[in-house]
Design a protein that fits this description.
Its cofactor is Mg(2+). One of its GO terms (molecular function) is metal ion binding. The protein is mainly α. It folds into 2 domains: about 60 residues, no CATH class; about 300 residues, ADP-ribosylation/Crystallin J1 (ADP-ribosylglycohydrolase fold), CATH 1.10.4080. The protein is built from 24 helices and no strands. Helix 15 packs parallel to helix 21. The relative contact order is 0.15.
């Protein structure tokens, strides 16, 4: 007999621990459910990979399914101030923009190109240290003479004991260390923006969430998506439709997945954070709710602002206008930015953020949005300083590096990003997406700009 396949992010007995954590975070009283799970021999959420090593007995799996549904029926006391419905989100934002905040200038082509290239560079910087905690990232950088981080990670000169204690992902390291970068390697943080571009080219800006679902079914193998996206794909295959796909046995619905999908919605709406956020909302509700959706709206608004703003502070101010101010994500963004303004030593900023968000998974939307905001303020428009700061936070390093790289790349334009961050990428990105393998960033930028008049009419 062959070994049983243990898929990550799917099995009920692995989801229940994450859902219990989510319940604590949104104020639901789940202690009775937690006690029943523990008394039956259930385990906590797997800390990293998303699946325990061994399958659960059938009785435990059935109990997990029952308890997941029971937890879903417990109302959250935060629901009123953290709605998911679009009309309620807009109503919760007293400063929601009623019109475009700024018109794009003659440098739009350079800025969109910079956004694509910057996203790729930030992603590649964070890729080899994904899943390595903050202290490990610093140990690797210090041991190789790269602390504070000012360039690509490298294995050259890395002592064996440091490498053994903090091993990188072999697959990622083979394509994203200084000594072997040869073009931009495939990554979900780059596949999703290309998927959004394909969606807009196919359906236009009037697309619906069901169109997002169709593109996913056409283009995304389950093995290339994670957490909430994998659960949403499973739910689609079970015959569920949005927004049920986001909530059915999906404890990852407030994690970072929707945030990494949203940049293109901002790039086709330069200077218009509200319209960018509306498109991001339609995409996000396929798989996310509340703060998970706000992460996408925040990212889309940030990237929209990055193409017209003069600095990160202006971009952040515009982006916060589309996030309910009483939500945990808005509070985290404000806190991250404020800490970076008041404390010049970024390690102390990170100390405070890690203490504040110690209960969150390393790919939750709230803590990662705080890190993005802090890095943008700290970097003050310097590309290398900004992406290095957010990667040093040690949470979702490649996703956050991509988002910060996108925003600062949009602010600077391709011509303003130092060549040492873009030359190794060779103006191409690998992808399993239909029609996108070896796509050039200048071509992707041109295709994106072609959608701007249709988005801004």
């Amino acid at each position: 007999m062959g070994t049983a396949v243990r898929l990550t992010w799917i099995h009920p007995e692995d989801l229940i621990g994450h859902e219990l954590r989510q319940a604590r975070q949104d104020g639901r009283d789940a202690e009775a459910v937690a006690r029943r799970w523990r008394d039956a021999g259930g385990h906590d959420a797997p800390p990293m990979a998303g699946a325990s090593a061994e399958p659960a007995p059938p009785r435990l799996r059935r109990l997990a399914e029952e308890l997941l549904d029971e937890l879903a029926s417990i109302p959250s006391p935060l629901a009123d101030r953290e709605p998911t419905d679009l009309d309620a989100v807009i109503a919760a934002c007293p400063d929601w923009p009623g019109a475009r905040l700024a018109a794009p200038g003659p440098d739009l082509a350079d800025r969109v190109h910079g956004a694509w290239a910057g996203r790729a560079a930030g992603c590649v910087l964070g890729k080899p240290v994904e899943k390595i905690p903050r202290e490990g990232i610093r140990a690797i950088a210090e041991a190789t003479g790269n602390w504070p981080i000012r360039g690509w990670f490298t294995a050259r000169g890395l002592p064996d004991d440091v490498a053994a204690r903090w091993p990188w992902n072999r697959r990622s390291a083979s394509t994203s260390l200084a000594e072997n970068i040869d073009g931009t390697p495939e990554d979900d943080d780059l596949n999703f923006p290309m998927l959004a571009l394909a969606l807009l080219e196919r359906y236009g800006t009037g697309f619906g969430t069901e169109d997002v679902a169709q593109v996913w079914l056409d283009e995304l193998p389950a093995g290339r998506v994670f957490t909430a996206e994998r659960v949403a794909l499973r739910n689609l295959l079970l015959g569920l439709v949005p927004p049920q796909t986001a909530v059915h046995r999906n404890p990852f619905r407030e994690w970072i997945g929707a945030m990494i999908r949203a940049d293109v919605y901002g790039w086709v709406n330069p200077g218009d954070p509200a319209r960018a956020a509306l498109l991001a909302h339609r995409d996000a509700v396929l798989s996310h709710t509340a703060n998970g959706v706000y992460g996408a709206m925040f990212a889309a608004a940030l990237t929209a602002m990055s193409l017209t703003a003069q600095d990160p502070e202006e971009a952040l101010a515009g982006a916060l206008r589309v996030v309910p101010p009483e939500s945990r994500l808005a509070a985290a963004v404000r806190e991250g930015a404020a800490l970076a303004r008041s404390e010049r030593e970024f390690e102390r900023v990170l100390d405070a953020l890690h203490a504040r968000h110690a209960d969150l998974h390393w790919v939750h939307s709230v803590n990662n949005a705080a890190a993005v905001a802090a890095a943008l303020v700290h970097g003050a428009g310097d590309f290398g300083a900004s992406v290095a700061a957010v990667v040093s936070a040690g949470w979702d390093t490649d996703s956050d590096g991509a988002t910060v790289g996108s925003v600062v790349g949009g602010l600077l334009g391709a011509s303003g990003i130092p060549a040492r961050w873009t030359d190794p990428l060779r103006n191409r990105v690998a992808s399993s997406m239909t029609g996108f393998d070896a796509a050039a960033f200048d071509d992707l930028a041109a295709r994106t700009r072609a959608l701007v008049p249709r988005a801004a009419d």
